[in-house]
């Protein structure tokens, strides 16, 4: 099986790459830093030449049976104190880049019939995320994109899935959590990776705690967002 | 002073017409130049700006702040195409996300200091739940919803922020976006009444941060206003 993972160098992406390689898949990765069987590309970069080079590389590696969009960055704090350029970088890397990549894969027929596309969004899609407004925007955007593609792609035999992991024990979580936040209750990335790879449902929420949060978020979206504001945002400001 | 984007057509146009008729001070923007505005456009300050151009967006925010103390801002401008992903182009994808998401983030960011005590309305769409016929537009509106959801909580007590999601409205936007008109068009919402319902939802003292403004809401608003 041929696999493509974005953000394959670190965190959940790296765990997904390792899990796929362990089961014998041929894995290609896209990340900022070049590594073995990977292509260095900044998804937030809009330079046509960089995208043309990526397209050429993908054409030599594909078509793929499984594509996982895992690359992502964040910016946490009060919305207005975070520089605008940082917000724009978050939406570029987490939303515009992935949409453009899927568009590229689609127009190049690089996703094989019978294959799978997994978009890694966030539990924030169910809870809201005050203190990370542009991040929440980008992840909800990716979720809306996955929901929109689900039916048209299924007609062509491609399964689209949306993974919404909660806090994980990755460099990403540590970088963006409030200072002194406990790492207890954070999911290990290799466990999240296994849960995602094994899942058959459209929405994938690894871990029992996050599953519960998602149910509550569905039932009482605004109450949960206010709770997030109290436990998270108040520590960030 | 109110400030409304996307006021040169459709819902934004109806909103500025309603506000001007009520004698509420309002300033407006759209992409087209002032010469291309409809003949009966109200006599209000207007600034042309392409929201896909980040420099122009900064200038627009500064222009709006210069029109007087802002009491309410409605970020209503929006664009998109009714077509499958394979028929999109990288440039069109970038433009739709820039107009529907990044420009609104930039305007909220720059206007934040003067919005204190006021209101901010973000006009989304029911497509934010996902729409097979328009994946890029749907993604941009889902993103706007997630942005507004987070910011409404961050700004609670300072700025009243609401994300309002209209159902299909007969502004011609869908046809311009590439959708072939069919029987479904007959159940599209009437633009003027929808605009009135949007303004009422934004003006209301209480209400959820995120609201769908669809048939039931528009109808209810007409009935209640007719009764009052
Ligand atoms: N119509 C519907 O069925 C429907 C349903 C749900 C949500 N909505 C949302 O409601 C809002 C208003 O829609 P509408 O139906 O009134 O659409 P519309 O009649 O097409 O008007 C769109 C407005 O946005 C402006 N705009 C578009 N691209 C722009 C750009 N690059 N820079 C600056 N301004 C730009 C347009 O300016 P110019 O005309 O001067 O170019 C126009 O004033 C949009 O956010 C839309 O997504 C519409």
From TrEMBL, chain A:
Entry-linked InterPro entries: NAD(P)-bd_dom_sf, Sc_DH/Rdtase_CS, SDR_fam
Top-rank taxon: Bacteria
Any Pfam family: adh_short
Coiled-coil ranges per UniProt: none
Keywords: Oxidoreductase
Family that this chain belongs to: Belongs to the short-chain dehydrogenases/reductases (SDR) family.
Name of the protein described by the UniProt record: SDR family NAD(P)-dependent oxidoreductase
Species of origin: Roseinatronobacter domitianus
TrEMBL record, chain B:
InterPro entries: NAD(P)-bd_dom_sf, SDR_fam
Transmembrane feature ranges: none
Presence of the UniProt keyword Zinc-finger in the record: no
SUPFAM superfamilies reported for this sequence: NAD(P)-binding Rossmann-fold domains
UniProt keyword list: Oxidoreductase
UniProt KW Kinase keyword: no
PANTHER family for the chain: DEHYDROGENASE/REDUCTASE SDR FAMILY MEMBER 7B (PTHR44196), DEHYDROGENASE_REDUCTASE SDR FAMILY MEMBER 7B (PTHR44196:SF1)
Family designation: Belongs to the short-chain dehydrogenases/reductases (SDR) family.
Protein name: SDR family oxidoreductase
């Amino acid at each position: 099986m041929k696999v493509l993972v974005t953000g394959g160098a670190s965190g959940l992406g790296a765990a997904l790459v390792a899990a796929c390689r362990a089961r014998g898949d041929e894995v290609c990765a896209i990340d900022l830093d070049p590594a073995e069987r990977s292509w260095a590309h900044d998804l937030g970069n809009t330079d046509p030449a960089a995208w043309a080079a990526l397209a050429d590389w993908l054409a030599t590696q594909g078509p793929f049976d499984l594509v996982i969009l895992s690359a992502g960055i964040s910016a946490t704090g009060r919305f207005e104190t975070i520089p605008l350029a940082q917000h724009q970088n978050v939406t570029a890397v987490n939303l515009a880049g992935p949409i453009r990549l899927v568009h590229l894969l689609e127009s190049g027929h690089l996703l094989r019939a019978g294959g799978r596309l997994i978009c890694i969004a966030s539990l924030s899609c169910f809870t809201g995320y005050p203190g990370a407004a542009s991040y929440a925007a980008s992840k909800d955007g990716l979720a809306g994109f996955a929901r929109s593609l689900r039916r048209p792609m299924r007609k062509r035999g491609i399964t689209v899935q949306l993974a919404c992991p909660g806090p994980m024990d990755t460099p990403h979580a540590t970088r963006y959590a409030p200072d002194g936040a406990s790492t207890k209750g954070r999911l290990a990335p290799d466990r999240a990776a296994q849960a995602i790879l094994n899942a058959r449902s459209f929405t994938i929420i690894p871990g029992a705690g996050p599953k519960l949060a998602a149910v509550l978020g569905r039932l009482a979206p605004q109450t949960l967002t206010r709770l997030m504001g109290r436990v998270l945002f108040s520590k960030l400001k | 002073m109110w400030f409304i984007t996307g006021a040169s057509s459709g819902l934004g146009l109806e909103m500025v017409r309603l506000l001007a008729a009520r004698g509420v001070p309002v300033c407006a923007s759209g992409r087209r130049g002032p010469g291309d505005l409809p003949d009966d456009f109200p006599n209000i300050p207007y600034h042309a700006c392409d929201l896909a151009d980040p420099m122009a967006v900064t200038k627009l925010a500064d222009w709006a702040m210069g029109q007087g103390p802002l009491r309410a801002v409605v970020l209503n401008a929006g664009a998109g195409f009714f077509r499958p992903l394979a028929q999109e182009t990288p440039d069109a994808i970038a433009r739709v996300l820039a107009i529907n998401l990044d420009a609104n983030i930039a305007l909220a960011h720059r206007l934040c200091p003067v919005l204190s005590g006021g209101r901010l309305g973000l006009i989304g769409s029911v497509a934010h739940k996902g729409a097979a016929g328009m994946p890029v537009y749907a993604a941009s509106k889902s993103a706007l919803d997630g942005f507004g959801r987070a910011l409404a909580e961050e700004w609670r007590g300072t700025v009243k922020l609401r994300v309002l999601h209209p159902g299909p409205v007969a502004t011609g936007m869908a046809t311009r976006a590439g959708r072939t008109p069919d029987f479904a068009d007959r159940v599209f919402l009437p633009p003027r009444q929808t605009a009135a319902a949007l303004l009422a939802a934004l003006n209301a003292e209480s209400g959820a941060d995120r609201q769908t403004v669809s048939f039931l809401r528009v109808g209810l608003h007409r009935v209640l206003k007719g009764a009052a």
